[in-house]
Amino acid sequence: MTVRDGLCADRVSRTLGGRLVLDGVSLAPSAGATVGLLGPNGSGKSTLLRLLAGVLAPTAGVVTLDGDLLDDVGRRAVARRIAVVEQHTDTQVPLTVLDVVRLGRIPHRKTWLPASAEDDEAVRDALEHAGLTDKVDRRWQTLSGGERQRVQIARALAQRPRELLLDEPTNHLDIQHQFDLLNLLVGLPVTTVVALHDLNLAAMYCDQLVVLDQGRVVAGGSPEDVLTEELIERVYGVRAVVTREPEGHPHVRFVRAAAPSRPGATVQ
Amino acid sequence: MSVEALTRRSRLPLVLLGGFAALAVSIAVAITIGPANIRVGDVWASVAARLGFGESGLSTIRDGIVWNLRLPRTLLAAVCGAGLAVCGAIMQSLLRNPLADPFVLGVSSGASTGAVLVVVLGVGGGVLSLSAGAFLGALVSFAFVLLLSHTLGGTTDRVVLSGVAVMQLFSALTSFIVLTSADAETTRGVLFWLLGSLSNAGWAEVGTCLAVLVATLLVCGGYARSLDAFAFGEDAAATLGVAVARTRLILLCATALLTAVLVSSAGAIGFVGLVLPHAARALAGPNHARLLPVTALAGAVFLVWVDTLARTVLDPQEVPVGVVTALIGVPAFVLILYRARGAR
Asked: Which intervals hold domain ABC transporter (chain A) (predicted)?
């Protein structure tokens, strides 16, 4: 096997509580791309992200960073390369936006020493990227769901990662905030792997899509190649009509399932 | 952008300087208060003489009261206050539980069982002192909590639940031994110790407790940033490069060891470890590099004054210091929570 740059999962499997949650999944996002992870609930998206982050170890297969096993790279070094935004985060600690974003510098800072100029610069850049410069003194507890996601993304950016992993970051956001957040993500100069529920958002914003079903990769490639009527019916069990938008990406329109017909009843 | 917020430099050295000054003044005043009627100037002159400045104008007995009773007792109060408060702050952050305190790992109840075994049942055959018994009991119960929480999965909620279970077990054991075997006099002595008391303070206790306190502060200070990272939970801490399992084990062991040493010298002084961290957070904010030293100083000043109150308010009778910490601590606790309510 040749040494691959960046973050790479090679035939990873994982059992949780005796159940095989991931079954031989490989993923090798190209540098700078935005990769969308799709699949129904329980298909293994979150578990795959946790393996990629090194929070969970695979039961089989390997996750590598520039060809080195995550375990060999070391926790702190991994945290300087890979940042993670979880699906739902909360804290009891009365932190300000600035406090939270500064957490992103922890893997870079030395014990006992105060924050360096580089730390401050990374925090300032992250706040600017996420459009939070006027909210630095706001308390975490007073923020809306969309603002909290933004703050977590700013914290992740303060880590100055080259890989960014996000688990359904648009959950519970209204449609405008979903667009804002994805616009922010695709504009970032990092390799992004993002688990998404909404097929059309994925089609609009991702360079590549990977579809998981019951722990296996059932499709992968460009949105046009992946999002077909046949695949949607097979994976999600719903009928859909897929058309091509003028911008080039596919658009998915779900078709309401027909009511089950009663035998013997005829419609005139 | 409020660039000021970013470039705002820490006023920590100033805060610490103020804290140390407040502590020094508190100690200096506290040692002048007591049943033996010694003039303020004489007290200070006596201490100064011991430190090699000038001469003490006091008789040997009165000099002894200042140097061998009041000063070590006040210093032990400061050390215990600092240690219990810091342990509480670390436990609350590590376990993400605002109700955690140094005794959440069952250390205090284990210590009391150990002490009661020595005092009431004569375990150790006179070789084992009461504080050594308490220390061993604390270690046994903590080992029990670690083992139990590890068996149950090792997550923080399991640690808390195991601590509560072990605490109940050892408390029941202590009550059982006291009720079935002790006479009234011993029961009274044991009770006094269970509630916490600084009346047995000597220089040896001060030395041991201070040494362990300093060592623990140095170890935990190195983990200040890891503790910050726990704000959003263990997975979030892991993605920030914190070795979660190792950090948790080291911090649990360090705080349990310090608590065990403090409890075996001064009994289970309650409420300091629960309340003071919350008060210090209101003062110093959530960052542990600031929070831990401020908590230590606040706890030290607090317990110096509470102990002074405990030994003078019903003079010549002494109130267990743990009773006074609770009597003062509960309203203070309510006030802090009430004032923090708006910030949520």
From this structure: 7-239
